[in-house]
Structures are given as C-alpha cells and as structure tokens.
Dihydrolipoyl dehydrogenase
Amino acid sequence: MNQVSTTLLVIGGGPGGYVAAIRAGQLGIKTVLVEAATPGGTCLNIGCIPSKALIHAAEEFDKAKHYADGSALGIMAGAPAIDVGRTVQWKDGIVKRLTSGVGALLKKNDVQVINGFARILDGKTVEVKGGDGELLRVRCEHLLLASGSEPSELPFMPFGGMVVSSTEALSPADVPRRLVVVGAGYIGLELGTAYRKLGAEVTVVEAAERILPAYDAELTKPVGAALKRLGVELRLGSSVLGLNADGDGVRVKDANGQETVLAADRVLVAVGRRPRSAGFGLESLQLDMNGRAVKIDDQCRTSMRNVWAIGDLTGEPMLAHRAMAQGEMVAEIISGKRRHFTPNAIAAVCYTDPEVVVVGLSPLDAEKAGLDVISANFPFAANGRAMTIESTDGFVRVVARRDNHLILGWQAVGRGVSELSTAFGQSIELGATLEDIAGTIHAHPTLGEAVQEAALRALGHALHI
Ligand code: FAD
Ligand code: NAD
C-alpha cells in the first residue's frame, strides 16, 4: 500500500475544507485534501450556487410571463416557454466553472488533492480508497474533519422515485405538474418558490404553525403574502404520514387530526440536514458529540488533540460562510497564529422572494437575553429606489441597546436585501452605534437608505416617514 505523510490532512473539500487547505497552503503548511466527489462540496455542487442559479432562471421566466400578461411599465411580450434541460445545463456550467476554479486554487497553493473516500483509522492515520479501488494510507500531524452534512430522510418516506432531496430537485429533467414540498424552511421555500415560478402547482407542508419558523413572524409575513400571491398552497401545522397506496399522493394530517391526500407527481423532502459523522470511521475516535454533530471549542478543536472539525459537521448554523471562516481560522492556528472563532454575528440569508436577512439579535432574542433594547423598522414602501424596481414590500429593522445605542442586530425582508447583509455584518463587527449609521451619508436612490432611515427612526427622527 502506498503511504503519504503530511502536516495537515483535510477530509472533505467543501467550503470549510477547501478554504482551510488553501489558507494552509498559503501559510506554507504541507497539506493533503481528500475529497470523495468534486471539490466545492455541497455548496458549489448541490447547494448554494446551483440553487441560486435555478432561482434566478425561475425569476426571469416568471418575469417574462408577467410581461406577457401586460405590464404597467409598457413592456409587451409574447408568452414565454422554457427548456428546463438547457436551464440545468447552464446551471451545471456555472458549477463547473467554480469547482474547476477551486481545483486550480488548491493546486496554486501546493495542496495535494486526493480524489477518494477517506476512512479514519486513528487520529493520525486515514486510509483513502481511490476510484480505481487502490488503497492509500495518509499519516498526518493534524487531522481536520470537514465532511459536511447530508439531507435528513423521513423514515416512512425515504428518498427514491418520486421522493427527492434538494440534490435531485436542482437537476430536474422536467418540471412536475404537481410538487409537494415537505418543510417550509430554507430549502423548501427557496426551491418551492422557484418551481412555482417554473410552472408547477406547489403545496408546502410544514409541521410548525408558521413558514420559516426560525425567524420572527413580522419578518416572514411579506414572504407568506408573496407565496399566496404566487399561488403556493401552504399547509401549516400539518404532518406528512407517507405516500398513499397508489403512490400518486402524499398523506397529510392537519392540526385537528384530519387526514387528506395531496396529489403529487414529485415530493421534495426538505426537513433539515444532518452532520455527516458516520460511515467513515469517525465514531472510532470517540470524540465528544452534540447529537450527530462533532463538539468543538471556540478554536474548532475536538476533544482529541490535533483533531479539528469545522462546518456542517459541527452543527448549526449550517452555512457556507461559517464553514469558510472556521476553515481559514484552523489553518492559521496550526501555523502558530492566535485565533478564536467568536464572531459577533453570522448573517443568514433566505433567498425567497422577497429575500430575508437576519444578522445578530432580533427584538425577541434581545428580550430573551434580558437586554433593554430599542428597535425600529423602516418600510420599503417609503423608499424611492424600491418604487423604481417595483418592489415596495418589506422593511429594514434595527435592534440596539437602549443605554448606549450599540447595534445588536439587523433584520430585513425585501427584494435584493441579501446584499444589505454586508453592511449589517460590518456595522455589528465594528461596534457601530445608531448614531454612526444615521450619520453616514447613504447614496440615493438605494435600498441602503432604508438602513440609515431605520437607525434614524430608532433615534426618533426618521426623515422620510
Ligand atoms: P460540505 O459542503 O457538505 O462538504 C463536505 C465534503 O466532504 C463533500 O464534498 C463530501 O463529498 C466530502 N466528504 C464527506 N465525507 C468524506 C469522506 N469520508 N472522504 C472524502 N470526502 C468526504 N449555505 C449558505 O451559506 N448559503 C446558501 O445560499 C446555501 N444554500 C444551500 C442550498 C442547498 C440546496 C443546500 C443543500 C445547502 C445550502 N447551504 C447554503 C448550506 C451549505 O451548502 C453548507 O453549509 C456548506 O456546504 C457546508 O460546508 P462544509 O465544508 O461544512 O461541508
Ligand atoms: P430547515 O431547518 O431550514 O427547515 C426545515 C423545515 O422543515 C422546518 O421549518 C421544520 O419545522 C420542517 N419540518 C421538519 N420535520 C418536518 C415534518 N416531518 N413535516 C413537515 N415539516 C417538517 O432545513 P432545510 O430547508 O432542509 O435546510 C437545511 C439547512 O441547509 C438549513 O438549516 C441551512 O443551514 C442550509 N441552507 C441554507 C440556505 C441559505 O443560506 N440560503 C439555503 C438552503 C439550505
């Protein structure tokens, strides 16, 4: 059996693992990265990027349909059609460009990439089985676990046939006539909305009483209203029981125990993701765990010396930018730098229509933490830029300490607000106060003016409302 020795061995080439490897390479650390599939992980191959591409294509198609119905803008267009096969090809092209780019960056930084499935033998030894079946043993000083996550399955309705996960939903051969989505979280609503815009009849079944139950009701209200306008049916407070006997529908029980069957040609199950912590020898290390997630400290150290873990494998929030930040930090710690993972806030964006952004504390979070805060909303209905892009739904909300006006959180819902997450995150990390944001000149006309106006409103003197 061939043997390789290295300083750092990374298992998994997703955003966590590939960023750790690139940074380690930059710092001169001898690094091997083992990836069973294509570099880029869930995010680039079957997650963030392909979902945003499909969402964009669906939005453009929907816009074309809207113009065919006549529009206040005076635009007239014929009825559009869509070739979903070509849409998927276009999406695959973007994925290919990005994953090839990651491969090139790893090479540029002298990272040895081994394509194969890693099996952990002990905290310093991993066996890799390549595509050709050949075994390779890798010895390391530091082992970084970045194996990510996988979709949770409903035991009574496993994936297969008409029951699909986000992976299959991102590469459809066609648009189903009737799609049932289980779960009104990130994936269910992002992809449910896209499929509706592509022409499917969509019903979303959610166990909780609200869509996006992780966010507060005020924030998700414009999303619920938009789903209704789009014709997405919501079955809230309902649980799925399984496929019906004929296999052409989903049995659903509502909060009153009433059972119905929803006719379906495809069922997208999006009830969460679970850390990929089994099936490759990780159990043998007997690390301290939080359920299925590997337990880490604020430097991403596990309970075993020189074994590190990052990203989705370590549990919520399962977000690509968190995984990347952790990966970069671990490489720097191994190189001898003093680093800790203590962000003041990690932005979360849901790419529904309208989009939702959450950074830091909501008023409810602050209340639960016993903090005395002021909060204020500024509606896009009072923002000129929002009017010019025909999108006045939603608002920006700021949360700040009452005593010194330190900003603790931002929330926003509206078209294009994902791009405001940068300003929100920076203001919190830099320790900005309401006065700092209110006193910054914001370009006109921009959606960003709602950020300044929310701060002004919290201070009691908004100008445009
Ligand atoms: P992953 O990206 O899951 O990568 C892990 C890698 O490890 C995989 O490539 C896997 O093949 C490899 N691997 C696992 N075990 C082994 C082994 N034994 N040997 C070799 N290789 C192995 N997050 C956002 O921030 N924004 C978004 O818009 C967003 N959209 C998403 C949309 C969808 C549909 C999905 C499913 C997820 C989305 N996410 C989004 C979440 C994001 O994809 C993850 O948080 C992110 O990919 C986690 O990175 P990671 O490096 O921890 O793991
Ligand atoms: P999620 O946790 O966002 O939502 C799952 C939803 O399913 C919840 O609302 C939950 O109440 C509901 N649910 C659970 N069991 C159910 C059942 N039996 N019947 C009906 N409803 C049920 O999970 P997800 O949408 O699968 O996404 C997984 C993870 O992927 C997210 O937590 C997120 O970290 C990541 N992701 C992020 C983005 C983004 O950042 N834009 C996009 C997609 C995915």
Remarks:
- The longest helix spans residues 84-108.
